[in-house]
Design goal:
The structure holds two protein chains of two kinds. By secondary structure, chain A is an alpha/beta fold. Chain A has helices at residues 2-28, 43-56, 69-77, 91-98, 133-136, 153-168, 174-180, 193-199, 210-215, 235-238, 274-284, 290-296, 310-315, 318-321, and strands at 32-39, 60-67, 85-88, 107-111, 114-118, 144-145, 205-209, 219-222, 242-246, 253-257, 262-267, 301-307, 324-326. The chains are: A alpha/beta, B mainly alpha.
Chain lengths: 328, 261
């Protein structure tokens, strides 16, 4: 009898310790608002992640602002807008505009590729194929467009795909001929804005990321790996495509070289809510968490996610170390 | 010396807060770019073109509002009919709709999927990415401001004056031209200024319908995104400056003519 009561006491004590511990854990749980600036093409998967993450951490409120990746970086670097996490559709934007002043590291977490989107009502919708798309786009009366190469990585990537098509299909002059049939008026700041033009019948074809096409139920032409900027094994071939975009100030230009579409994410230095931001990053980079959602949305993730060097890996917060590998 | 009541000081301090609220950020923005930067910006042909396009399209929107809106404003001021409240509500609708939605709505009737868009494209009129498209958007957002100002103007004129004219045998049109218009033209001018001011500041709806050709607000946005604050501010300063001069000129014109009359 005495033994039983000892056991009971032990259980009660252990149980109380457990309760106290979990109570303190709950108090230490991340809370408050986390601001995320992210590329427009991440809106749909990030919305799904926001729901799942907030269900897991009810105390945290994710506040997302979607925009062109460069604009997001400008908001941080020029406007000094408080922000915890920045996710870019072109990981080099983080390298160029945020490191070293506003961020220390840059994790590559997912990929994408370019496709040519259209609807049932597009001109030649019943004729276009993987083989003849570049002939259709040269036809008179076909209205097609892409986003602004100076503002949106999807814009210069669209141009790169057409440059690579010239090389891949061995059709000299193809790039110029295509652009001759695309008046400046068909350009939009962000690629996602082209979708409403497609859906309202103001435009026949638009260059988009695969993810955007999947998420908006658009019809699309998938292009060979050699030109779709989706397979990093072709990075050498991609690098032959060079597009001039506006540089640091009006009148100057800089060259963008073709590279596979690779999403990058970083934690902003002096993040207002670092703890909760890291909790979200842990979820985002988790193969069973955010990466799974990305996979479903047409943005194949890297498992595990990558940083270019061991040196950079050392700068990544301890909680995220296990989720990344150093691989160039 | 007369002792002011506390109420007086409350009024004064509220007024001061409002003045500071409006002026502080604007002055900060207007004074941020250097003079050299401003001069360099105004020499940029793209900037001049976009500001001119802004002035020109906003002016066109005001003119269209004047031609199409004046009769409706007159009707609303002078008559009572079933559903008048509904019509007034519809007139105010463009003020309440989020700007990007305005752009999408206009595009949705201008595309191939709509009979109107098809008819327009057969006529060779393109709304997407055209000056015509910009004017359509600006008229949409500016019209309510013109209509309401002019309606109030008409309402403040006694209908008896018109009745006297009609009873002396003047036809309706001539009564409007010789009695109502001379009394209401000032409110029309104010309506035009309001409409123009609203139109020149529109961004959200325009950028959806037409990115190129660029009106000044779109260019300010593009410069901000591509080059940052430093290069977008001077364009903004010039736009504010030129609008200010235009509106001041219009106001001065009104005052002078009134004195002559």
């Amino acid at each position: 009898m005495k033994k039983v009561s000892m056991l009971t006491w032990t259980i009660i004590v252990l149980f109380s310790i457990g309760v106290i511990c979990s109570a303190t854990l709950a108090l230490a749980e991340p809370r408050g608002k986390v601001t995320i600036f992210h590329a427009g093409s991440l809106s749909v998967p990030f919305e799904a992640m926001e729901k799942a993450f907030e269900a897991q951490y009810p105390q945290v409120d994710l506040q997302r602002e979607a925009g062109g990746s460069t604009k997001c970086a400008r908001k941080i670097a020029d406007l000094k807008k408080p922000c915890d996490i920045m996710a870019s559709a072109d990981y080099t934007v983080i390298d160029k505009l945020l490191i070293p002043n506003y961020a220390d590291w840059n994790i590559r977490f997912a990929t994408n590729q370019l496709v040519l989107c259209y609807t049932n009502k597009s001109a030649y919708a019943d004729k276009i194929t993987k083989k003849n798309w570049y002939e259709i786009l040269q036809r008179k009366g076909v209205i097609w467009g892409h986003s602004d190469p100076n503002l949106d990585p999807c814009g210069y990537r669209s141009l790169m795909v057409m440059q690579l098509a010239e090389k891949h299909y061995k059709k000299p002059g193809l790039y110029d001929k295509l652009l001759a049939n695309r008046p400046k008026e068909n350009i939009r700041p962000k690629s996602v804005e082209l979708i409403s033009l497609l859906q309202t019948g103001n435009m026949d074809y638009a260059w988009e990321y695969l993810s955007v096409a999947v998420q908006h139920d658009l019809k699309y032409i998938m292009l060979p790996d050699e030109i779709n900027l989706g397979n990093y094994q072709y990075d050498d071939f991609y690098s032959q495509a060079v597009v001039q975009v506006t540089g640091e100030q009006p009148g100057t230009v800089m060259e963008m070289k073709g590279q596979s579409c690779t999403y990058g994410v970083t934690l902003i230095k002096g993040a207002p809510n670092r703890e909760a931001a890291i909790a979200f990053l842990e979820y985002l980079l988790d193969p069973q968490g955010g990466l799974q959602i990305l996979k479903e949305m047409g943005q194949p993730p890297f498992v595990p996610c990558r940083v270019p060097t061991e040196n950079m890996k050392a700068l990544v917060p301890a909680e995220l170390q296990k989720l990344v590998e150093a691989k160039d | 010396m007369k002792v002011r009541e506390p109420f007086f000081w409350i009024i004064i301090s509220c007024g001061a807060v409002i003045m500071a609220f409006i002026l502080l950020p604007l002055i900060e923005m207007m004074t941020a770019p250097s003079l050299a930067m401003l001069m360099e910006t105004i020499k940029d042909k793209d900037v001049v073109r976009s500001i001119w396009l802004s002035v020109y399209t906003a002016g066109s929107a005001a003119l269209i509002s004047f031609v199409l809106g004046t009769p409706l404003a007159y009707l609303l001021a002078r008559t009572n009919f079933m559903g008048k409240r509904l019509v007034e509500g519809i007139v105010d609708l463009p003020i309440a709709i989020p700007h990007p939605v305005v752009g999408i709505a206009i595009l949705s009737v201008a595309g191939k999927n709509h009979w109107l868009g098809q008819a327009l494209s057969e006529l060779g009129v393109r709304i997407m990415g055209s000056v015509a498209g910009i004017i359509v958007v600006l008229t949409f957002v500016g019209l309510p401001f013109y209509l309401n100002a002019v309606k109030n103007g008409f309402e403040s004129i006694s209908p008896r004056l018109e009745k006297v004219s009609r009873s002396l045998g003047a036809p309706m049109f001539s009564t409007f031209l010789r009695i109502t218009f001379p009394l209401a033209w000032r409110s029309m001018l104010i309506g035009l200024i309001m409409c123009c001011a609203r139109a020149i500041s529109e961004f959200g709806a325009v950028v959806i319908v037409a990115y190129h050709p660029m009106i000044a607000p779109v260019m300010i946005y593009e410069r901000f995104e591509a080059f940052g604050l430093k290069y977008s501010q001077p364009v903004a300063v010039w736009l504010v400056f030129i609008s200010l001069i235009l509106f001041l000129l219009l106001r001065i014109l009104t005052v002078r003519k009134k004195q002559v009359a």
